[in-house]
Amino acid sequence: MRAVLSKTPGGPETLVVEDVLDPTPKAGEVIIEVKAVGINYPDTLIIEDKYQFRPERPFSPGAEVAGVVEAVGEGVKGVRKGDRVIAVPGWGGLVERLAVRAETVIPIPDVMSFEEAAALIMTHGTSYYALKDRAQLKAGETLLVLGAAGGVGAAAVELGKAMGAKVVAAASTNDKVEFALELGADNGLIYPSGPMDKAAQKELSGEFKLATGRDGADVVYDAVGGDYADPALRAMDWNGRYLVVGFPAGIPSLPLNLTLLKSVSVIGVFWGAAVMRDPKAHAANMAELMQMYADGKIRPRVSKTFPLEKAGEAIKALGDRQALGKIVVTVES
Ligand SMILES: NC(=O)c1ccc[n+]([C@@H]2O[C@H](COP(=O)([O-])OP(=O)(O)OC[C@H]3O[C@@H](n4cnc5c(N)ncnc54)[C@H](OP(=O)(O)O)[C@@H]3O)[C@@H](O)[C@H]2O)c1
Q: How remote is the CA of residue 308 from the centroid of ligand 1, in Å?
């Protein structure tokens, strides 16, 4: 089978497509014939050895896949050959066939395409866990989303609306803000795309306050970091919750005096670890997400697809800040 492989640490240009042996199912495993692979920011990090996990090389990136069960190993119950399923292996997904533990696969509803299914779990799973379990976002509260047109950001916009919040979307271009408004955001603003000095940060904080309303944001969803964090923290309301999700713009330092003055909680979000620590809560969240999809409240937006041979270009486009919603790699075998 064909596999996209990282053989040396580096950017997407270092990835190669090679023929490797097909996997065979061990006891308790299923083999998925992969149809689509969701691309996420961690794919840009893992191939450069900059992610929380460092798999042994050669390895394939690709954290989440959708496909059809092609074979089942000994002792597998509840999953059958021919089932349409999602799996979130973390890496290893940019291949034609993938072995995963049977108990980890999630069935795909009949009405959901493989592309949508491959684009749902990492982003909506992360943002639902962040907003529901970590921030305990309530209906009527104001949610400010930074990077609101990216993968997890767009999911946070949709989920924030589904949970009854007033959502303010912030992003670096007009097209991105428009996209977030189409997803349901109530209000939007464009922020500078490059580094900011103190004066520019102060100005941005004022814009955040104007856009969120007189009292500021109850919850900030920050999957961007860098110079955007300080202005967002300054635009928070009393008892606000600041969600630390990711740092494509750099790891910021926050002035802790601000958290005291506004009684703000700074809350770390590590969805992958939470899934491993509490699989039951994860399964319950997945069921709720599937119900929201069935009710038409959420829908992963796939703005661009690439074939498997061009998976490196897909990862580069995402790393270059070009993604609106999700980028997906499709696999023809
Ligand atoms: N904590 C968790 O459990 C968890 C789970 C999944 C992902 N994440 C993290 O969440 C972040 C977003 O992931 P994603 O898959 O949603 O990525 P994505 O689709 O690429 O979105 C990232 C957004 O960050 C903004 N950005 C600002 N400065 C950037 C820069 N220098 N380079 C690239 N983007 C920049 C971009 O929006 P603008 O152009 O509008 O600024 C972009 O849309 C990543 O750091 C990822 O590791 C965390």
A: 22
